[in-house]
Amino acid sequence: MTRDPARDADDASQEPARDAMPAVDARLLVRDEGIRGYVGEFWRKVRSGELGSLPVVIAVIIIWTVFGSLNSTFLSAQNLSDLSQQIVGTGMIAVGIVFVLLLGEIDLSVGSVSGLCAAIFAVLNVLNGMNEWLALLVAVLGGAAVGLIQGFFFAKVGVPAFVVTLAGNLAWNGLMLQVLGSSGTVNIPADSIVAEIYSTIYHSPAAAYATAAVGVGLFLAASLLDAARRRAARVPSRPIAEIVLRTIVIAVIAFVTAYILNRYQGLPLALLIFLVVLVVLDFVLRRTTYGRKVFAVGGNSEGARRAGISVPFVRMTVFSIAGAMAAVGGLFLAGQIQSASQTSGGGNLLMNVIAAAVIGGTSLFGGRGSVWSALLGALVIGSIQSGMNIMGVSNAVQFMITGSVLLAAVVVDSLSRRSQKAAGRA
């Protein structure tokens, strides 16, 4: 087959031009229009169902405004500081639920797993004298092992996750009762590691402000590094002005939070650990190959399999992560009440952690969400419960209101997905 020299020369002359042309994302062109462009892009996202954290932020504002107007105690520094500690146990378990929901699955056993692991720690450390750090490690590894077992039946055997974890909810609760024995309750000393981690507060104002400064600095550094990496790859990146604006918003939130905490007692260690866990797991989900595989499997498991991703491995590890986070949350809850009993992991805990993940913005349909959903959702659930407790509302009404909020979150998620499909973005 002969080639046309003139055509070859023309093609060659076009190569440098094509190579020099950077990739352009049309959605990023709005940045050239200034504030008007950003406002237009925001409304475009709302109309197409890309709501992000907007609904839950609005919900927090409404909840705080309503309860604050009804009783000034709700917005006091003491109540908000207590709230920041109380949401940690639920929030930790909700983080594991976020991972499972990203697969489009559900784990109904996390409440029982949290109670089981709290019982394991209490029995090993308090009743059998095992070193508390070793007992803590055994409890967390026990939660991870439980999750791995459930993940195996789901990913390898093919039993639906709903059925596996529902069975686990019963089985692990029974094992917890067996571990606790005839006494049914094991009191955890106030100087135990889990009790101290929950109750420790750094009273120096410098601790809260330094934490806020470090957090803002890390956010700014990560944003600048990401922008530099994208520019080096010749793909669109956030302009410096936008990075600075985002950093200012984060700084305001961080330092206002530090100020409120310092007005009461200071920075709770439990809240600090929770934030560190969120940062680490957010990095895992958004910046690692494993995290991209989780989103890929949740978005389209068959497509992920054809792309060479080991779907069973991802599913098993995600359920193992959920089990480990249930154990961590259970230990925080045990440290809060300083005991492990037959009621550990029971009550409305399962409902609250699932509600926290969903209300925070993680989709029930898989493939969309963030670990920060656990913080936002736990804040909503905790704020509702705290406000209604201050107002003296009965548990029956609290359950109905929390259930209504959960239903509203699912409705918003469903309508959001429908809007995205109509706009060709789902």
Keywords, please?
single chain; 426 residues; mainly alpha; two-stranded antiparallel sheet
Describe, in plain words, how this protein is organized in 3D:
This protein has 17 helices and 4 strands. Helix content is 75%, strand content 2%. The two termini are 45 Å apart. The protein is mainly alpha-helical and 426 residues long.
Radius of gyration based on Cα positions: 24 Å
The main pleated sheet reads as:
2 strands, antiparallel
Sequence of strands across the biggest β-sheet? 1-4
Q: Which structural class is indicated by helix and strand composition?
A: mainly alpha
Relative helix content: over 70%
Q: What is the arithmetic mean of pLDDT?
A: 85
Note the gap between the termini: 45 Å
Number of helices: 17
H/E element order = HHHHHHHEHEHHEHHHHEHHH
Oligomer: single chain
The count of DSSP E runs of length 2 or more, i.e. the number of strands, is: 4
- In percent, how much strand structure appears in the residues? under 5%
Give a quick precis of the structure.
The protein has about 425 residues and is mainly α. It has helices at about 5-20, 35-45, 55-70, 75-100, 110-125, 130-155, 160-180, 195-200, 205-230, 240-265, 270-285, 290-300, 300-305, 310-335, 350-360, 370-390, 395-420, and strands spanning about 185, 200, 265-270, 340.
Would you spell out the secondary-structure blueprint of this structure?
Blueprint lengths: L4 H16 L14 H13 L6 H17 L6 H26 L7 H18 L4 H26 L3 H20 L4 E3 L5 H7 L1 E2 L2 H28 L7 H25 L2 E2 H19 L1 H11 L1 H6 L4 H27 L1 E3 L7 H11 L12 H20 L3 H28 L4
Helix pairs in contact: 3-16, 4-10, 4-11, 4-14, 4-15, 4-16, 5-6, 5-7, 5-14, 6-7, 6-14, 8-14, 9-10, 11-12, 12-14, 15-16, 15-17
